[in-house]
Design brief:
Elements lengths: L2 E4 L2 E4 L3 E2 L5 H14 L3 E3 L7 H11 L6 E6 L6 H15 L4 E6 L8 H13 L3 E7 L3 H10 L4 E7 L7 H9 L3 E5 L11 H10 L3 H10 L4 E2 L6 H8 L8 H8 L19
Parallel strand pairs: 3-4, 4-5, 5-6, 6-7, 7-8, 8-9, 9-10
Antiparallel strand pairs: 1-2
Helix pairs in contact: 1-2, 1-9, 2-3, 3-4, 7-8
Amino acid sequence: MQVIEAKGFKIPIVGLGTWALRGRDCARLTEQAIRIGYRHIDTAQMYDNEREVGEGVRNSGKRADVIVTTKVQPTLLAPHDLERSVKESLARLRLDVIDLLLIHWPNPRVPLSETLGAMAKMKQEGYTRAIGVSNFTVALLDEVNKVSPEPVICNQIECHPFLNQDKVIAACRQHQMAVVAYSPVARGGAKGDEVLERIGLAHGKTAAQVSLRFLVQQGIAVIPRTSKIERLEENFALFDFTLSDGEMQEIRGLSRQHGRIVDWTWSPNWD
Ligand SMILES: NC(=O)c1ccc[n+]([C@@H]2O[C@H](COP(=O)([O-])OP(=O)(O)OC[C@H]3O[C@@H](n4cnc5c(N)ncnc54)[C@H](OP(=O)(O)O)[C@@H]3O)[C@@H](O)[C@H]2O)c1
């Protein structure tokens, strides 16, 4: 498994997203993904499935080889709330440690320095091995890297061929942070796209695999979600073909100004 290294922390380049996976199915898919070779599982307090993700990881028998990410929900970024919620996450996961703890979304009502201080404390006290952020803009990344007492190793952002994220990706690189792409098959929208289908056909691959390969080939980690066992294999089979420069360029041409799938408009309105 290829890894991305950021500030000494290694992130397997393909992970499993688990948003909307619930109950027995979530535990079963998590376990099966690890059996196939996935070494990176993404959950969050907001997904209400940390218990099942932890169960799947434990049942796989490979806990020591897997990076488990969870995210603190944006209403809990004040230090006291954050610390309590991280302890509760770990209790739900029933794992020895969280591998990667992210701020899920920024919350302008809580000073970033306070949140990052609490995140650092969680690392120093052994609740997590590394810390990072998600949905952070270029300006916020600058601030994070100024005020965080501990290295912030990644920014998890929406990223797929239909959205241009060049500016925030460049900022991550400038700060030596890994980029982790969420919604990397555009919530299923890659399938059926004429360009991705045609390029896939030329390589004996699906449009979803082309979408994922496009990101991986740029050194961006991907965390596709599926509720189907057979697609776990499909989304993992990305390392036996290479997109040409011309194909990469053509895929880049699919990006649109309003290509976002995940709605940001609600994010600053936290109570
Ligand atoms: N940090 C954040 O704010 C944030 C936001 C959103 C998501 N995330 C994380 O990123 C993960 C992935 O993002 P996402 O769930 O939004 O979207 P995604 O992974 O791009 O898309 C998932 C959807 O695509 C379908 N799909 C998956 N593989 C496919 C394939 N090979 N061919 C055709 N369709 C396929 C799935 O359907 P089936 O189930 O039918 O296969 C599902 O409906 C999430 O699960 C979550 O862990 C983080």
